[in-house]
């Protein structure tokens, strides 16, 4: 689950992280009062969407040479003009895709005198099995280029979960970021704070880009992107309250009601699979044979017919889907349960696109028999390779 920048900063501030004063804005009429409350003389107007690259983004409704989704204002009239242009318009960034995201809220924040921009993030390092700080002296909007062109400038410091952020860890992070004086003293305090927030709130990502050294020598969290582990949200009702459904795909919202792992993609072949690894393999082989998956969908090992029916309805609700591949390896999951759910869904919503079903494992004979006797136009497949070729051929009209 993702949250907005202003929500992330409020959360980090509650742990003691240094952030600027800011006020979220939900209507154009709120802007001037918020700006007067902050005082100026410099304000930063920030689009609040669940996507990165806002500063270099473009608004669909504005001329190509218009400013992006993060803007500076040096007087109240300029601030109001930015708000009027940005609020309610659609911002397109590298992470939104061509459709972009509508900006429904802004964050008005005090400006800062920036000496240096740094990059810092925390995430789970799957190699070490520990939370790691990923840091670089090259923070800012071009961090992706740094990772690609000069990866030696990015440093990884793993944290022993039993010890937490030790003085040696904090000192190593300071060294990697080339901090000294007041900035180093701030860092020695800040890095344990960030680790505590990350672990206590079950975050999956905490990214601060940039973390800045100001001209007075102190550190400040200038931006914050936070994602939470969805499997741990039951422990954090306060975090669940921050969820913004307007930022999520309608199909993903529906899937979450049935505890389905679903992510909408841009392709034409809908996938229903059990197991994340098998789902990834299914998506890969679809691409191998020349088409693109329309979704990632893992129904899990313990799905019942109701859950499978819901999954099928979600796939067919996507207007981009031109064909469906059901790929089930029955271990805990029974193939006859999958077949029953698919057939129930087909009868309820109809079947207007080709459907290929590959079943293997527990109760496979019973599952295949249910499909064969259904009288529905379902294409059987013997294995994953056969299934992928058949659904791609069917979508292409072969």
Automatic annotation (TrEMBL):
Top-level enzyme category: ligase
Q: In which pathway does it act?
A: One-carbon metabolism; formaldehyde assimilation via serine pathway; Carbohydrate metabolism; tricarboxylic acid cycle; succinate from succinyl-CoA (ligase route): step 1/1
One Pfam match, given by its short name, reads: Ligase_CoA
Query: Keywords, A to Z?
Result: ATP-binding, Ligase, Magnesium, Metal-binding, Nucleotide-binding, Tricarboxylic acid cycle
HAMAP family from the xrefs? Answer: Succ_CoA_beta
Q: What does this protein do?
A: Succinyl-CoA synthetase functions in the citric acid cycle (TCA), coupling the hydrolysis of succinyl-CoA to the synthesis of either ATP or GTP and thus represents the only step of substrate-level phosphorylation in the TCA. The beta subunit provides nucleotide specificity of the enzyme and binds the substrate succinate, while the binding sites for coenzyme A and phosphate are found in the alpha subunit.
- Indicate the quaternary assembly: Heterotetramer of two alpha and two beta subunits.
Protein name listed in UniProt: Succinate--CoA ligase [ADP-forming] subunit beta
In its UniProt entry, the species of origin is given as Maritalea myrionectae
The UniProt gene name for this protein comes to sucC
């Amino acid at each position: 689950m993702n949250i907005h920048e202003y929500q992330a900063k409020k959360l980090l501030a509650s742990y003691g992280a240094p952030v600027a004063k800011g006020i979220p804005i939900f209507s154009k009429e709120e802007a001037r009062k918020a700006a007067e409350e902050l005082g100026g003389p410099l304000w930063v107007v920030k689009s609040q969407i669940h996507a990165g690259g806002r500063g270099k983004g473009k608004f669909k409704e504005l001329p190509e040479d218009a400013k992006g989704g993060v803007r500076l204002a040096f007087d109240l009239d300029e601030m109001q003009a930015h708000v009027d242009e940005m609020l309610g318009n659609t911002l397109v960034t590298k992470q939104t895709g061509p459709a972009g995201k509508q900006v429904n809220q802004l964050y008005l924040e005090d400006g800062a005198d920036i000496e240096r921009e740094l990059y810092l993030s925390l995430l789970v390092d799957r190699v070490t099995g520990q939370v790691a700080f990923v840091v670089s002296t090259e923070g800012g909007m071009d961090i992706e280029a740094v990772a690609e062109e000069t990866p030696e400038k990015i440093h990884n410091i793993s944290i022993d979960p039993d010890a937490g952020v030790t003085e040696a860890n904090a000192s190593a992070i300071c060294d990697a970021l080339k901090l000294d004086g007041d900035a180093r003293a701030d860092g020695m305090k800040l890095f344990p704070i960030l680790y505590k927030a990350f672990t206590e709130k079950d975050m999956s990502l905490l990214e601060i880009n940039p973390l800045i050294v100001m001209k007075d020598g102190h550190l400040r969290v200038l931006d914050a992107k936070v994602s939470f582990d969805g499997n741990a949200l039951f422990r954090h009702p306060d975090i669940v309250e921050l969820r913004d459904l307007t930022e999520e795909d309608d199909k993903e919202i529906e899937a979450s009601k049935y505890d389905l792992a679903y992510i909408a993609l841009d392709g034409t072949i809908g996938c229903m699979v059990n197991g994340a690894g098998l789902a990834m393999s299914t998506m890969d082989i679809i691409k191998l044979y020349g088409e693109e998956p329309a979704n990632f969908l893992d129904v899990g090992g313990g799905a019942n017919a109701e859950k499978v029916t819901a999954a099928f309805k979600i796939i067919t609700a996507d207007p981009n889907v031109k064909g469906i591949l059901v790929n089930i390896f029955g271990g805990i999951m029974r193939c006859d349960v999958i077949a029953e759910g698919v057939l129930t869904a087909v009868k309820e919503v109809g079947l207007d696109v080709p459907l290929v079903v590959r079943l293997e494992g527990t109760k496979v004979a019973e599952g295949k028999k249910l499909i064969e006797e259904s009288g529905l136009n379902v294409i059987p497949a013997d294995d994953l390779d056969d299934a992928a070729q058949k659904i791609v051929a069917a979508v292409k009209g072969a």
